[in-house]
Specification:
This protein has 455 residues and is an all-alpha fold. It contains 15 helices and two strands. The protein has a two-stranded antiparallel ribbon. It is globular and about 90 Å long.
Length: 455
Amino acid sequence: MLNVLIFTHVVLASTHAGTASTVGQCDISQLALDEHWLFPSSSQTMSLLQTQSVKTQPLLQMQAVKAKRVEVGRNEAEHSIDSLAGFGAIGWFVAAVLACWATAPSMKTAGAKATYEELWPYARHTGFFACFIAQASWLYYFFLANKAADPHFGTYFWPISPDLPTLVAMDICAELVRRMVTYNAKYVIFCICFGMSKEDYVFAKGARSEWTESDVAHFSEKYGAHNIKVMDAINRRLGHVIVNVWRIVLLGFLARSISGRLQLLIVSAVISTSWRFLLEHSKSNVASFMFAGARISDGRFGRFNQVIVSFFSSAGKILAILIFLRSSSPLCDTETEMGSLIGLALVPLLWGDTFGELVGSFWGRLQFPVLGLGQGAKHKTVEGTVAVWMSSTIGLLVKIAIRPLPPSLAHWMPLHLAAIVAFAATAGEALAPCGTDNYSVVVSSAIALAVMRRC
């Protein structure tokens, strides 16, 4: 290869000099110099590189300073947005609490008159305002906080995820199956197992907007207050177990992306809350079919309670995903771990909330007061609260045995993690007003898991 290059260079030099002599007539010293130019020594190469490095060093320093300024600016902007979002969320939440507090005297006055006609409008106004405004404020906070931390956060919401149509179709089909099961099971539980007459059953599954306290008293006196409570618990928990098992399968295994999960939950929240709101006062068979889970003990608020539960349940799952995104770090691959994380957060809702109500309804004796709407939503039991913690812990251990912990939680002992998450879920369930525990249990579990990921 060297001979070919030397020969080519000699020919070019001879042509440039205007001579057609042989190679032997070429200036050997010039040839050696040209060969040295073609193949410089290592010392010359290092010298050249050092010269170029000295020339480019100021430029690299300027680029580093600029990058540092951009990073500082981004951190300051993120901190400012976090602060703004936090103050905004707290402000909205305080406003909702003040509204509830301001409305309380009117509700107490109405309650003293012992008429649903007086209590009904105040309770509905307070319930809608508190649940929608307060929960929207926390969704607003975590949305802005995640947007500040991740410039690509908006891609989770737009464009539409390719698997969204399939997920929505599967969810609607599963919801219809659940409604069919609970609607038919309600007849079996109420009429066949507890002997409720057909007339009372038709009245119980109908519209609630004209119910009075005497209607609830009629069922309690005829069938026993304890039996009514047990019937309500079995009927309600059956649908609860079906829907949350499906949610764990759907969000934990079938949905493959964070964008698909978030968009599905948003669409589901809009659809489920809207149709419940529109059919709440309807006397049609469709409304009776869709509100099969309404409790007798909740009286006039039976269907209204399910409207509130629908919104809180969807909002809790959305907020849980936002919390997990907020807890991400370079060592935590949230994209691949999200299915496992959301499954862990839903286990206490599935088993803890279910056994809490069943144990409290069957054997609960030690009661403590809670907020809530409805004749039966006045207290919870210590026995039910203990059942929430025990069943949540066992359920989490089973879940971990079936599907191991994600890498960001692998450093925790399964028993320790299960006990801590179950405790957080139990605290959320015990402190939550009736109708909001589907939200508080999931969010409390998500917060505990998010903190444990970073510890």
